[in-house]
Amino acid sequence: MSRPILYSTHISPPCRAVLLTAEAIGLKLEIREINLDAREQFNEPFKKINPQHTVPTLDDNGDIIWDSHAIICYLTGKYGKNDALYPKDLKKRAIVDQRLHFDSGILFALLRGIAKPILRDGVTSVPEEKRKLVLEAYEFMNKFLNKKKWLAGESFTLADISCVSTLSSLDALVPISSYPDVVRWLKTCENEIPGYETKNSPGNKLFTEILKSSLKE
């Protein structure tokens, strides 16, 4: 069997979550970079693979999956050596799932809602109403992390991988500095999640530099 193919762009937080997951389970992927600025996601060959034309998209020997949260659960279930990242115990898994939905429905939705107008529409500041929603999300995370090292268990899970990929970018737009448990957790992720410096940091650095260059001081 050939390596799973990941259609990706390295600046994307969801794509970075998949890369971190693959690193954590020791899986080698064939990366096919999609240039969003060149609108390659709208090319017919890619739309035939994923009619929603989104990245990341996984092709695992003909099995096509998109949405980073679906992909990382699939990869962990199929290729993971154990269930540490995504527990089989239903109660433990439910907590991981809740945090994954928190990322997709709140953290990433907020990041996209701020970043897209900056990148596409020439907006030069973070609207106050959106900033307040981000701070509210940080407050929730601070409570999740009260007296806990990780978001959903005794060791890092897919919840931490998914949320840190988003939050590391969101922090550049709305700083987390007033939320000590979130600050501590982010530092822990940087130090202890395998491949953080190679799979998340470079894309995050480029993404946040692009965003900051469009913002007024």
Question: Would you write up a description of this structure?
Answer:
- It is a single chain.
- The chain has 217 residues and is an alpha+beta fold.
- 59% of the residues lie in helices and 7% in strands.
- A four-stranded mixed β-sheet has the order 2-1-3-4, with helices on one face.
- Helix 1 links the parallel strand 1 and strand 2.
- Helix 1 runs antiparallel to helix 8, helix 4 packs antiparallel against helix 5 and helix 4 packs parallel to helix 6.
- The termini are far apart.
Topology:
Elements: E1 5-8, H1 13-25, E2 30-33, H2 44-49, E3 57-60, E4 63-66, H3 68-79, H4 90-121, H5 128-144, H6 158-173, H7 180-192, H8 196-214
Parallel strand pairs: 1-2
Antiparallel strand pairs: 1-3, 3-4
Helix pairs in contact: 1-3, 1-6, 1-8, 4-5, 4-6, 6-8
Protein name: Glutathione S-transferase 1
GO biological process, one term: glutathione metabolic process
InterPro entries: Glutathione-S-Trfase_C-like, Glutathione-S-Trfase_C_sf, Glutathione_S-Trfase, Glutathione_S-Trfase_N, GST_C, Thioredoxin-like_sf
